[in-house]
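[Automated response] Your request has been received and processed.

Submitted sequence:
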Amino acid sequence: MSKYFIFSICLFLSITVKINAQSAPVQFECNMAVQICETKFNPVDDSVLIWGSFNSWTFGIPMESVSDSLYAISFNLIIDSTYQFKFVNTHGNGVFWEEGPNRELLVPVGGTTFSDYFNRDSICNYPPVPVTFECNMAVQICEMNFDPLIDSLFLKGEFNSWSEDNRMLPISDTIWEASIDLEPGLYYPFKFYTSHNGGVWEFGDSRVIYVPLSGTSFYDYFNHDTICNPIPVEITSFTAHSDNMKIILNWSTATETNNKGFEIEKKTVKMQSQVINQWQNIGFIPGNGTTTEHHSYIYTDENSNVGKYQYRLKQLDYNGSYNYSTVIEIDVSEPKEFSLYQNYPNPFNPITTIKYSIGDVGTSPASPSGGFMKFVKLKVFDILGNEVATLVNEEQPVGNYTVRFDGSKLASGIYLYQLKSENFTQTHKMILLK
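Generated structure:
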């Protein structure tokens, strides 16, 4: 810069030393605001020069900064003379002349001031600035309106003619992001759009973002929705029916969300003139988590006798919350005949369960509870016919019964168990396999 200073002194001397009463002061001003705005001029490192016919275009003279964007220099020039000149920008160690023809100035009596923008440009065409868009899809995922494994999220707006040019990318389990460069100082309408089920726009009017000179970022939930209203566990049917000595429960779901499973609860309403009002947990069936597919469930209650029962389902979420189903009721009537059922499990080791029914037939005296009494024998024999155990040997009222048989003291083999009462006798085989 020192050489420019020397040149300035020389020019000043060459002009002012002339004894000419027709000279007058002229101030040249160059406004670099637009160049600064467009990042084409850095006031810290760059300089503004003036070249012209007043020194035969021999060199550029540095202008002084008089404000953040205004540069100036003053000369004494001959009145009624016309001078040509241009401003020069030294941005990035380069030399950038103003575009277009040379400027001209006629020096009036008394002098003048010339002021203009570099390149005669008073409007800043701001360079694009980065804008980051982030969309939180947590609620859509929760409500099963977006599947991160197969669905895509797009940023659509006037800046891309509402096309799918800007696919957003996941930066976490629930947040998608896209960054684009936009011209600052303008407002841009836009919306988020998913490919779920053929394409889904956000509800309502378009969003609008204003882009400042420094750039900006945008963050919100899809559809402005921060609260998840999950698809419930929708139980479409819940039924019960009896099969011999079992009560079989069936239920179906249309949708499930966060479903850990179902606890089966039972209440005995009436059994042999006794009324019981307490719910009991008798089993658990796992659920299917979150799904919109139809699912069917079954549970068999093996421990029911003659009486009236109620059942309900306690649906459990993984977060610990729960909901109850409607209550269903079933009346298990007294058996009409004697029956001996196959033991379960079979083969067994060493314990198995034997079930039988005492039918409401005959003329035995009634029990204190009101049912008819039958004298019943239930015995176990080996394959040779030797008795090895007596499981029942007493009067029992009409109803269904369950007996556990422990064969831990017996050798492996085939055994027979026999139910006998009045004119009824029935025998089944079972296998003890150790």
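Summary generated for your ticket: The longest strand covers residues 246-270. The two ends are 106 Å apart (CA to CA).
If you did not submit this request, please reply to this message.
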